[in-house]
């Protein structure tokens, strides 16, 4: 398993997306992994405090308003300060439904708030120039979407309950179905805050970089001794697509003067040092990197 010290010694990769460069520090990636769950949990605990039950009241009363507006249900929001939570839905002829912090949908907002706050900033000055604005926009829009969807979820659940469906069945099934909204939020975040997804890819790149370098060294040693190397090993080093790698290797091997024979790539003795030089580049065998 890679240690942080070993990762620090690895040359930082640069991911380019939409004409922007993304380079992240190891510290920011570690903070992202640790800070996101801890901050989400702490934010939820804050909203679960009694001083924040104003949120319960707003959500319950708004839901009751729309229930009566659309279904003429005569539902009521009842303040009942007994036990931990104080608000209930009361529907004529039905058992009351208690309301708790989890019913506000705040837990989803807390998770995305933690993600947005701790998403690392690129070290490229042009890329990170407007990140505070982009983070603010992502946080506001994701919170509004989750809040609205949560109100709609409760309206549907309570109407079905009023029609006679068992509460246990509709409560968990509709709650689970509404989780698709998280996917929409991720897509929106990728538009406004691509650092979120790119930082995850960046971690994978950092972890795989030592493996890539070891493979390059292995190929280098083999070519020095034998002037040939297995095609499959080259594919792994260059991360070429399985479906097209044979065609791609033939194309650039012709350009550089190599030969494909069976399962091996043959390198003329006079081209060995040039092959090794090209292989060790950040982007091996990219067009226009051939010798002049």
Task: Pick out its properties.
three-stranded antiparallel sheet; single chain; 2 domains; mainly alpha; 12 helices; disordered C terminus; Arc Repressor Mutant, subunit A; 61% helix; 292 residues
Topology:
Elements: H1 4-8, E1 15-17, E2 20-22, H2 26-47, H3 54-71, E3 76-79, E4 87-90, E5 97-99, H4 106-118, H5 125-128, H6 131-162, H7 167-177, H8 181-192, H9 195-226, E6 228-230, H10 231-238, H11 245-256, E7 259-261, E8 264-266, H12 272-279
Antiparallel strand pairs: 1-2, 3-4, 4-5, 6-8, 7-8
Helix pairs in contact: 2-4, 3-6, 4-6, 6-7, 6-8, 9-10, 9-12
Choose one word for the global shape: elongated
Mean pLDDT: 87
What structural category arises from helix and sheet content?
A: mainly alpha
Write down the secondary-structure element order.
Answer: HEEHHEEEHHHHHHEHHEEH
> How much helicity do the residues have?
55-70%
What's the helix count? 12
- The strands making up the biggest β-sheet line up spatially as 3-4-5
Uncertain residue segments: 288-292
Largest sheet: 3 strands, antiparallel
* β-strand amount: 5-15%
Q: How many strands in all? A: 8
Oligomer: single chain
Describe this structure in words.
- With 292 residues, the protein is mostly helical.
- The protein folds into 2 domains: 11-193, no CATH class; 210-279, Arc Repressor Mutant, subunit A (Orthogonal Bundle).
- 61% of the residues lie in helices and 9% in strands.
- The strands form 3 sheets. It has a 3-stranded antiparallel beta sheet with strand order 3-4-5, covered by helices on one side. A 3-stranded antiparallel beta sheet has the order 6-8-7. A two-stranded antiparallel sheet has the order 1-2.
- Strand 1 and strand 2 (20-22) form a beta hairpin.
- Helix 6 runs antiparallel to helix 7 and helix 9 packs antiparallel against helix 10 (231-238).
- The longest helix is centred in the middle third of the chain and has 32 residues, at 131-162.
- The two termini are 42 Å apart.
């Amino acid at each position: 398993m890679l240690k942080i010290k070993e990762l620090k010694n690895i040359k930082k990769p640069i991911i380019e997306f939409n004409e922007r460069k993304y380079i992240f520090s190891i510290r920011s990636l570690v903070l992202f992994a640790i800070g996101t769950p801890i901050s989400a949990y702490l934010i939820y605990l804050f909203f679960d405090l009694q001083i924040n039950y104003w949120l319960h009241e707003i959500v319950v009363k708004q839901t009751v308003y729309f229930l009566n507006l659309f279904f003429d249900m005569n539902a009521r929001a009842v303040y009942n300060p007994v036990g931990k939570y104080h608000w209930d839905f009361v529907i004529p002829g039905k058992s009351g439904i208690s309301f708790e912090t989890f019913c506000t949908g705040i837990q989803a907002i807390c998770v995305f708030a933690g993600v947005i706050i701790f998403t690392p900033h690129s070290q490229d000055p042009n890329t990170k120039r407007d990140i505070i604005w982009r983070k603010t926009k992502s946080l506001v829009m994701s919170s509004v979407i989750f809040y609205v969807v949560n109100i709609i979820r409760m309206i549907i659940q309570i109407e079905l309950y009023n029609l006679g469906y068992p509460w246990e069945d509709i409560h968990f099934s509709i709650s689970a179905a509404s989780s698709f909204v998280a996917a929409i939020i991720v897509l929106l975040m990728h538009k406004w805050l691509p650092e979120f997804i790119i930082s995850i890819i960046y971690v994978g790149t950092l972890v795989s970089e030592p493996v890539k370098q070891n493979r390059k060294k292995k190929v280098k040693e083999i070519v020095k001794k034998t002037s040939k190397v297995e095609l499959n090993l080259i594919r792994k080093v260059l991360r070429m697509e399985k479906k097209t790698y044979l065609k791609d290797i033939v194309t650039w091997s012709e350009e550089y003067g190599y030969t494909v024979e069976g399962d091996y790539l043959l390198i003329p003795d006079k081209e060995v040092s040039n092959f090794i030089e090209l292989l060790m580049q950040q982007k091996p065998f990219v067009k226009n990197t051939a010798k002049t």
